[in-house]
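Why DUF177 domain-containing protein? Reviewers of the renewal asked for a concrete example.
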Amino acid sequence: MQRQWFVTLQNLPAAGRAWDVEVPKKLLQDSDFGVVDVVAGLCGDVYWSLLLERQGDLFHLTGQWRAEMPRQCSRCNAAFNWQVIGQTERQFQLGPEPVNEEGDSGCEYIAAPGEVNLVDVLREDIWLAWKADVICSETCKGLCQGCGNNLNTGVCKCEQDDSDHPFAALRNLKLDG
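Here is what the prediction returned.
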């Protein structure tokens, strides 16, 4: 296993630790590395900027990542590479989870020495950023509902007969102005 992707919270320097790395696609798709399901369908490596700091008893992990995945547009059904940017925000605390704690503190409790698999954290963040419906661009025109043509790459081939449309009579209206 690649130990560079594990961090032990008890061994964290007082100044904290920062990463600015490309996480290999091959590692994120390796089912033998970590417990979180692998991320399938990445176009390439994932860029990740990360900071781990200690504040009292809490360890704060924050950062930003950027990935690219092949997807189908929800409007025009064309294949494209979806650019996704996500945030990493975690809080860890060493020791067992308190039994009488009221509410959800948003903190993950880890037994000492507090080993965290950063690849699992990134995999989880990518899964949480997944959207069911994505579009190839904000200007995507989609498909014609009549003929099914992709309106981004061609024109509608429908023979439009809207003479029975309720507002068709307005076309013949002459306005003096």
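Residues 3-129 form one domain. This is the kind of structural detail the renewal will allow us to pursue systematically.
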